[in-house]
Amino acid sequence: MQEAMINRAKQLLADGTVDRVIGWKRGEFAYDITPAVFRSAEELDADFVFDDFTSANVSKYLVKESKKEGKILAFLKPCDTYSFNQLTKEHRVVRENVYIIGIPGGPKLDAEKIKAKGITGILGVKNENYTLKIETVYGEETMPYYEAVLDKCASCKSKKHVVFDELIGDDGEVLESNRFEMVEKLENMTAQERFDFWRDQLSKCIRCNACRNVCPACTCEKCVFDNPNSGVENKAPADSFEENMFHIIRAFHVAGRCTDCGECSRVCPQNIPLHLLNRKFIKDINSLYGEYQAGEDTTSRAPLNDYKQDDCEASIVHERGVE
Ligand code: SF4
Ligand code: SF4
Ligand code: SF4
What we know:
By secondary structure, this protein is α/β, with parallel strands linked by helices. The chain has 13 helices and 8 strands.
């Protein structure tokens, strides 16, 4: 796949369709694959990487990149195409300045899950009949492949590309996903148990802002959390109330726009399952306003930006008997 992507990128650069390419290159470690812009065949040959650890969604980078002169080639996995569509709908990207090649999705791997098995010094991985063979500086290690899969890939909602100019490989289908299972478990807890669960998780937050910075729905040029008068700009939260509010406010801001791309949880250095908060919103929107998938198209009106006479009233939370 990597070779096919590099070859096609070189062709599109050579024939002038695009003048640069956004993809990924290796960071400090083998599993540390990071978005990068390439401007020549030589740069692609030297640094372009697409492997089991290439999970970063490049859609958000296109907010800035698509406003520059010329056209950029972007390789988008199925989940990334939902983010791009949502950004198009919100007029945050300039669609005609991006040439999109849809590429197959994961499953992608989570280096943290490999390290949690005590495996360090990772140099590379290979999936052999669902056994993951891990080459390390200390020799070869193995573990079951599916135990190393990223959470967002384990509950993938769709292998279908919702926007592309061309595809490498076949397109997939929208999947029957188990993504609301954990949300249902939380719903079945008592209010106190649920509060304790979230306090336990959110108290780990070090306010690094990685979740906000990576989120394709968080593209506000002036973010509310950068307001020095708000009291929420601290590096470390002042108290538990403020600690909760950062996440609750962000979840409300992206409600109805979050495509469930899973990037917020993926990048959190404290392993806080932020996607559960966002999925609760998605699940509630589905049940209160009808099934809706943000980013599925660029024209439909989002439930929270629309008004219908039979929309539920604000009192619905009380009527549903939510504790
Ligand atoms: S809130 Fe998380 S899952 Fe939702 S769009 Fe942002 S990064 Fe993706
Ligand atoms: S947290 Fe809210 S204000 Fe800040 S970038 Fe995200 S959506 Fe915008
Ligand atoms: S990425 Fe994790 S630690 Fe960083 S601000 Fe977000 S929740 Fe907190």
